[in-house]
Amino acid sequence: MASVSKFAGLGLVDPLLRALAEVGYDAPTPIQSQAVPEVLKGRDLLAAAQTGTGKTAGFVLPILQLLASRPAAKPGNGRPRCLVLTPTRELAAQVHASVVTYGRYMDLTSTVIFGGVNINPQTKALRGRIDIVVATPGRLLDHVGQKNVDLSGVEVLVLDEADRMLDMGFIHDIRRILKLLPARRQNLLFSATFSEDIRRLSDGILTNPVSVEVAARNTASELVHQSVHLVETHQKRDLLSHLIRTHRWEQVLVFTRTKHGANRLAEKLSSDGIPAAAIHGNKSQAARTKALDQFKNRRIGVLVATDIAARGLDIDQLPQVVNFELPNVPEDYVHRIGRTGRAGSVGAALSLVDGEEMRLLTGIERLIRRPIDRIQTEGFEAPKPSRAGVSAPGGSARPGRPGPGSAPRGARAGGPRSGGPGNRRPPQGNSRGGPSRGSSRAR
Ligand code: AMP
User: Angle CA(233)–CA(238)–CA(241) in degrees, nearest 5?
Assistant: First the structure.
């Protein structure tokens, strides 16, 4: 177990170290080094960390240890001691998988609860002893309504990807759930961004929290080769097929802005002989799981996803991300490219940008505080500067001039690498105000 001795330094006990040795982690990630000792001390935590930083183990490991080290105050069936709320089913499933993996040598029980699937097996699971529940808010409230779950014994609450939960309209559900929890409990809040709404939420929930922050991966880190290909809108689909073929990309996650666009693109790639599937909110859970499994097993090489569907997808060492369209919000760009270059592996993120999107590109380069390298491919020319307003914010664009061929993987941007979203400090909330009433339901 020598390789996990660095985890022992964080104060983690043997059963956890054994599980970590088996999954093969060598050393804690920065968020784990910062968060684990504080959570073990029982402190509330406000963490600025994105998916891909190892944040899940950062809270799952110490929570398992805390729960195993003390008896439940009032043990009972369907009375979880820890509640983890997540915005999406995929993230819930992923967090729960971590609970199972890291907790395999501990005598703790857990279950995962999310909508879009039959409620009965979940109800059945809740009838027994359940220490940890990982849930999306809407379905959890369904179980509360049916009296399947009693949240009055929750000792630790985790809000994972809290910013996404607010974006997805879960605030009222969260407030309703908060009212069902005992006042005395430990609270951990994870968020990639810190808007006013998040500050208000964390101020109302956290008591004298420790703030931890890790630099937004992929902006400050060197792990992702980012590049931009300027191209006319109508050429994007052909260009993507061309790039996938010439670079022999085997596992590509492609982002589109709309569900419809995701479907169309997956169909077009498939008809070009490149097996692809779309994954988005209109698809059933079964269809999403199937597409993801096929992608992971390499039966399809391309997964086309919308931003929300892609949240929480746990795909290790994804080598290539493509932004078929830039997101409207610059922060989403950072989330998207966070799908590659995970946990120490190098990845590449290519954005196909038309004239209309130059404004969005400028916003992204401002956010990440660096220019993104431009690449070109013969036959796929950049939009005309006059029409498109093409500029070279990073000074590295050469619009309209055929380049030496496209080389997304090799291209690296120069310029300063520090800063970006990781510079925003999380707030130091320390009041415990009662959450306000909410009425509407989002799912
Ligand atoms: P997360 O940010 O929690 O979604 O984790 C991102 C990925 O990093 C997951 O696939 C984890 O299995 C992996 N991971 C978490 N902690 C470590 C670690 N200490 N060393 C290597 N990989 C890790």
Answer: 130
Q: Ligand 1 — pocket residues by CB below 6 A?
A: 25, 28-29, 32, 51-57, 314, 316, 342-343
- The rounded Å distance from CA 13 to ligand 1 centre is 19
Spatial CB neighbours of 88, under 8 Å, sequence gap ≥ 6: 114, 136, 164, 168, 308, 309, 311, 312
Give me the pLDDT at residue 281, please.
73
Q: What is the mean pLDDT of residues 3-24?
A: 90
Ligand 1 atom with minimal separation from the 51 CA: 2
Q: Spelled out in words, what is the top-level CATH class assigned to the domain 7-217+431-442?
A: alpha beta
Q: How many CB atoms lie under 10 A from the CB of residue 145?
A: 9
List pLDDT tens digits, range 306-357. 877 776 566 666 789 999 999 988 878 887 887 776 555 678 999 999 999 9
For range 42-47, the mean pLDDT: 96
| CA distance linking residue 358 with residue 393, whole number of Å | 10
- Ligand 1 centroid to Cα of residue 256, in Å, is 26
The segment(s) of the chain belonging to CATH 3.40.50.300 are 7-217+431-442, 224-388
The mean of the pLDDT values for the chain is 82
Q: Which of 29, 63, 314 is the best mutation target for the ligand 1 pocket, counting ligand atoms within 8 Å of the beta carbon and taking the most?
A: 29
Contact 43, 69 (CB under 8 A): no
Q: What 8-state DSSP symbol labels residue 221?
A: S
Under a CB-based contact definition with an 8 Å cutoff, are residues 20 and 7 in contact?
yes
| Residue located nearest, by CA, to atom 19 of ligand 1 | 28
Please report the atom of ligand 1 found closest to the CA of residue 94.
4
Could you confirm whether domain 224-388 is CATH 3.30.365.10? no
Nearest CA to ligand 1 atom 11: 54
Site to substitute for ligand 1 among 56, 91, 160, most atoms within 8 A of C-beta: 56
Q: Give pLDDT tens digits for 106-143.
A: 999 999 999 999 999 999 999 999 999 999 999 999 99
Q: What separation in Å is there between the alpha carbon of 38 and the centre of ligand 1? A: 19
CA distance 91 to 8: 27
Atom of ligand 1 nearest to the CA of 316: 10
